[in-house]
Amino acid sequence: MLKWFPMAELIFTDTDSLYYTIEAPDVEEKLYQHREFLDYSDYPADHKYYDPTNKLKLGKFKCETKGASIIEIVALRPKMYSVLMRKDTDPASEIVEKQRIKGISRATARELRHKQYLDQLSEPIENYQVNRRIGHKAHQLYTFEVYNSFFSLFISTQRIMPNFML
Hints:
By secondary structure, the protein is mainly beta. The protein has helices spanning 27-32, 106-111, 114-122, and strands at 9-14, 17-21, 38-39, 61-62, 70-77, 80-86, 95-101, 127-137, 140-150, 160-161, 164-165.
């Protein structure tokens, strides 16, 4: 990426994603010139860069927004981010939110909004959720209540101990 766009900045990564900020004229056109490395098969069929040549080929980069503009990203920690973007490639199209948050129930995750990610970034607070689950142990069914820390800048799986970190 830096070979084509020397001023590109890596914003954050996820398991199989890289998010860059690139400020340059005709970014899409310059990327399309290197289409042998890119998969444009998810773009709308009537889009000028639509190309099914690299569909489902391993090692090809894919634009997760299908050509739509990203307006803002808030990445709080691994597996916890929110993206504010256009619904489609039309600059006048509706603005939509895409959030990812791992480790909490889907019902709770659906309630979160981009503004809450921004608020958490500016004023971090610890948030907790009770997860109720049915499980088994020695062939007996039980209900469990697990208190999870979620939606926080603090990584709860790490504890800092004197002289070492677990």
